Amino acid sequence: MKILTAIFLLAALSAARGDPEPAIPYFKEVRAVSITAPDHQSYLVIDSAIWSHARPDLADLRLYDGETQVPYELSSRNNSTTAQEDEAKILNLAQRGDHTEFDLDVSAATEYNRVRLTLDKNDFLVTASVSGRNQLADTESTAWPTPSTLFDFSRERLGSNSTITLPDWSFRFLHVRLSPGILPKEVSRATIGYLQEKKAVWADAGNCKTTTQEKRNTIIHCDIPTAVPIDRIRFDVPADPVNFRRMVSVANEKGIQITSGSIGRLRMTRYGNTVTTEDLALNVSADYTGSLTVTIDNGDDPPLPFRKVQPQSLERRLYFEPQGKTALKLYYGDEKLTTPVYDYAKFFREDPYASPAQLAPETPNAAYTGRPDERPWSERHKSVLWTAMLLAVALLGWLAFRGLQAEPTST
Prior knowledge:
The chain is mainly beta. Helices cover 13% and strands 43% of the residues. It has 3 domains: 25-77 and 316-364, no CATH class; 82-196, Jelly Rolls, CATH 2.60.120; 202-310, Jelly Rolls (Sandwich), CATH 2.60.120. The two termini are 33 Å apart.
């Protein structure tokens, strides 16, 4: 029984392993980091060398000051995000001559730069002029000199827009004047919101080959560098084609669709008003590397003349506090590590004036030894474990046989 107990204890101990700990000798690659503003939040830009030799999820990145880790936060340079919208009360809605006017009570928000109208009408093109005031009865108001264009081209399947763009305002009341084309009864709702503009930063990744035609479809093949994530595909279309919208799908090298959507350009004039919009980028919902096949459905229209189709990756930044240091080291290339957990990341706030730090070229880590064999004892010594188990079984069998032989005969 003691032998069996020892075997079970050995198996239990071999299974009790925690997450691997980082150590400088376990990283394959190292980069010197030069810091220009040691008393200010800084950041590194993740480049192709890091993507190629770090874990795909970047969980093995570690920043060191000598032997001490420096906490960091990874952040993507995403597009703008919109705050929650608030309801605005519609007041004094009426027709004045050939156009519609109304006031909005926007006291639900302290600051805003967008007004979104819900209009019960299809197929229109109008402009919206806005002025602000703090009291509804004020005769003087501040006018925003740039009218917004509102449109709906459902019949042509070219999209719609019912959002009025403003500067960052805090007036309690807004006066809205619509050009002819919308009746008062067709204005059903208004909301206000604050849009924080944060432009995405993109880097080209990979190349797309010459297009081919298959019946109604344009087929484009793209090669992506190893390990570089793709976040969108940008389509460069000459200025001449207008008023188009084409469905697009993207498949991976196994033929499995990974995203779909549409690209388009609109340039239309009605009742003296002109609207021009375009959306020539398709977001990829999940990071993907390898070869991609892009399919554009042209319907019965001629194919679009693409000047270039370019896969792109969002810029990723590693933010940190130098704490007076002018030089650090970035290590990576340990596939066993998991994502670090820092208090710095939990309370991270991006400083808009953060300074870029410089990465030296990638070099092999001279201290690299590789991790010791961390497999459980039972996996590293299977033959010993099986031998011990067979001996235990044999011993138990022999003890049982001896017990039967030693059993006294009855008198």
